[in-house]
Amino acid sequence: MANHKSALKRARQSVTRQARNSINKTKVKNAVKKALATVGGLAEDSAVAFKKAMSTLHKAASKGAIHPRNASRRVSRLAKRLFQGQTAQE
Questions:
Q1: Least enclosed by CB within 10 Å: which of 19, 51, 81, 87?
Q2: Whole-prediction pTM value?
Q3: Is the pLDDT of residue 89 over 70?
């Protein structure tokens, strides 16, 4: 355990940050799971769930819970899975 005043403070800060990051990561996992659950369903449901998941991923990246490239990669892979085979019907 830390003995110096500054080291004790850093330990407290790391506990706080760890809790905050785990909350954000859990939100990301839940949003991605919900989006993947819409695979094969209605296109509107998929689009709404994808938009929510994309927003959650980018928010987590902006807060430092995950790396920005990690968020971009996951958004890309999610879009690929959700909208695979769907073409513009217009």
A1: 87
A2: 0.81
A3: no
